[in-house]
């Protein structure tokens, strides 16, 4: 029973941390207007799904900056 409670508390803490990061990132998007364009993100996701793991320099640069130019 104690394990179940500890697991629930741990999951709640992880959820809170996830939402805190999401809120910070959304606030940055709203403040800067910078995002990764959908076409670039989609192409990257499609390449990853095909097992291609090459780095798109533009997306890598955007990831380093959290958000890239739109």
Explain what the structure shows.
With 70 residues, the chain is mostly helical. The chain has 2 domains: 1-32; 34-70, no CATH class. Helices cover 73% and strands 0% of the residues. The chain is built from 3 helices and no strands. The chain is flat and about 50 Å long.
Quickly give the structural class.
Answer: mainly alpha
Distance between the termini: 50 Å
- As residue ranges, the low-confidence spans are none
Percentage of residues assigned to helices: over 70%
Query: Could you describe the largest sheet, including whether it forms a barrel?
Result: none
How much beta, percentage-wise?
under 5%
What count of domains describes the coordinates?
Answer: 2
Number of strands: 0
Q: How many separate helices?
A: 3
Elements, N to C (H/E) = HHH
The coarse overall form would be: flat
Q: What Rg do the Cα atoms give?
A: 17 Å
Mean pLDDT: 85
Descriptive terms for the model:
70 residues, mainly alpha, 2 domains, 73% helix, flat
List the helices and strands and how they pair.
Blueprint: H1 2-32, H2 38-49, H3 57-64
Summarize the structure.
The chain has 70 residues and is mainly alpha-helical. The protein has helices at residues 2-32, 38-49, 57-64.
């Amino acid at each position: 029973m104690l394990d179940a409670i500890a697991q629930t508390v741990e999951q709640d803490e992880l959820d809170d941390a996830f939402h805190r990061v999401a809120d910070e990132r959304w606030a940055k998007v709203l403040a800067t207007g910078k995002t990764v364009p959908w076409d670039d993100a989609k192409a990257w996701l499609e390449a990853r799904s095909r097992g291609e793991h090459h780095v798109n320099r533009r997306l890598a640069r955007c990831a380093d900056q959290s958000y890239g130019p739109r």
